[in-house]
Amino acid sequence: xxxxxxxxxxxxxxxxxxxxxxxxxxxxxxxxxxxxxxxxxxxxxxxxxxxxxxxxxxxxxxxxxxxxxxxxxxxxxxxxxxxxxxxxxxxxxxxxxxxxxxxxxxxxxxxxxxxxxxxxxxxxxxxxxxxxxxxxxxxxxxxxxxxxxxxxxxxxx
Length: 157
Ligand code: HEM
Fold this sequence. Notes:
Layout lengths: L15 H11 L3 H17 L4 H7 L3 H17 L8 H6 L5 H18 L2 H26 L15
Helix pairs in contact: 2-4, 2-6, 6-7
The site of protoporphyrin IX containing FE (HEM) has 21 residues, from helix 3, helix 4, helix 5, helix 6 and helix 7.
């Protein structure tokens, strides 16, 4: 292969060594993340519980899907591609524990169908942690802790 031809699994990253090590450990790359994100939102949009919440807020799916691939690339492969605020995006949504449970069920199922086993486990573990964090933040806000000047992730207990 000539030096000018990109390697098949090349991704854009700010931390090439870490990203390469994570890709090797998990078998994940841009193509796998894109497959997972697109398949997941195909399911989510058709889901009776979650679909209406997305339909209410997203009319142009292209940018949202691109954003979500960048988000998972940052989370799973530490590429630094995502710049946004997932916490803020969810604070005003009409969601309860049942919505997060359903989201995680669909995500886990889709990850197992679209990624190699190590990659699926890696994605599911991170999705569970982030979902718990977003949900916890929403509950805190509803209970009134959102008035505190201390960010939720810095408060004890
Ligand atoms: C209860 C389940 C969930 C629902 C109904 C939901 C719904 C949404 C909606 C409607 C948006 C678009 C917000 C807007 O642009 O106005 C959004 C954005 C987003 N969601 Fe979720 N979400 C859920 C759970 C999660 C979880 C568990 C994660 C991560 C593991 C996540 C990650 C994101 C990210 C990264 C964005 C983009 C934020 C931005 O940069 O604008 N979501 N979500």
